[in-house]
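Justification of computing resources. Each target in the renewal requires a structure prediction run like the one illustrated here; the chain below, 252 residues long, is used simply to show the kind of job we budget for.
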Amino acid sequence: MIDSYGLCDVGLVRKQNQDRILIDDSVGLFVVADGMGGHVHGEIAAQEALTAIQFYIDSSSDRFDVSWPFGYSFDLSIDANRIATGIQLANRRVRLQAQQNPDTAGMGTTVAAVLVNDSHAVVANVGDSRIYLFRGGELQQLSIDDTWIESMTTQGLMNSTEAQNHPMRNVLTQAAGSKDMVEVHVHERRLESKDTFLLSSDGLHGVIGNEGILSILRQGLDLQRCAERLVEAAKANGAPDNVSVVLLSYNL
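Resulting structure tokens:
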């Protein structure tokens, strides 16, 4: 059984909310998208991405009658292929919209998604919105940050202390809409009872950090109160960006 709850808050500084969240319990799909592009274009990108992903996941629910416009990876499960394809379609949709309308040129969005089927979960992301797994009192980041800083630290060209305050720490290396094809990071996980997934935009994890998130998750609150406390913590630290959080808990 999956319980879920999400919040999407404008924060304390921004005038528009360019984040979008999706909770679709009927197909087990949960998404956070953090749009970018100035004015209202970021929210257009985020909404277009969510619409594309939801449509594909819904239309591919019959796994024996599915088209794979970007090919099929035999190294992944069917559900992993479904979510990866959905994100590629989101990338195509956002990119096409930006190319057709000069006013929206350059818009894009991060995508962090979880697809749950029975006791199996697929997590996938593009950009720097994150997916965490809270299990046994510990927090593990499952997503990969598509940032310049992450690239530098992965290559050993910068340590974590240097990265923390670097002026380019928020520069993305890819997002949905940024290029013809994106690299979708996919991770599959067998679920255990009491597993909790947290999806967040950087308006949350970039403000309160992993330790702040962990301290709230360890309080054992219900999902609604936990989400509220997370947003409250971001606001207590200034909430300079939009704040989005989606929580889902698996219980046998």
